[in-house]
Write a structure and sequence with these properties.
Radius of gyration: 18 Å
Number of domains: 1
Distance between the termini: 50 Å
Structural class: alpha/beta
Order of helices and strands: HHEHEHEHEHEHEHE
Number of strands: 7
Shape: globular
Helix content: 25-40%
Strand order of the largest sheet: 3-2-1-4-5-7-6
Length: 229
Amino acid sequence: MTVLQKIDPAHIKSFIRRQGRATAGQKLALESHWDKYCLSPDAEFNAEQIFGRSAPLIVEIGFGNGDSLAAMAEANPDLNYLGIEVHRPGVGHLMMLLEQRSIANVRIYHHDAIEILERKIPDRCVAGVHLFFPDPWHKRRHHKRRIVRPSFLALLNRKLATGAYFHAATDWREYAKDMLATLSADAGLNNASPTGDYCPRPDYRPLTKFENRGLRLGHGVWDLIFTKI
């Protein structure tokens, strides 16, 4: 007899593991620097011990190849950055950048971001959460996989300190509209946009090569910044 179980929407994965092929440099970084930068999902998370200091904690979900995260961490040495990414080559690339530039204020989880936030990050301790260019899941039947949904915002509200912020950016207009509606409906968050919709790109978010190319082609990019009430 087959028993069909209803899947909790809160636990539908917002990603598919497409590991790809790591370059020689990424493989070397993964082999040589894993213990220096990567945290175990099974170990306790204590930011002060991990970073060797007390400083505001910024979490980036899905940092891709890590170019933007490395640039932000290098430009803001007074902040602690925690990057979470499921794609192993991207983790290797970020570690390469951290070593090359001697950036010491970044640590990494190679794991599901939702699970890390739920199980490892203490409540009300995060100063900011970044979600830059998440998978928009274009097809309607896949919209349930989009990470910005009410269950995710409930988790954010638990982890963000009062006055902390959530910053999402996308180059997919329909996803921007969907995120804006979902975020605006959350009573615990306040839109930082003076016009009640999107924000200009803040200086701390670097322009990626992909984004620059899209802008030259006339593609739009939408930034949403909401603060914890």
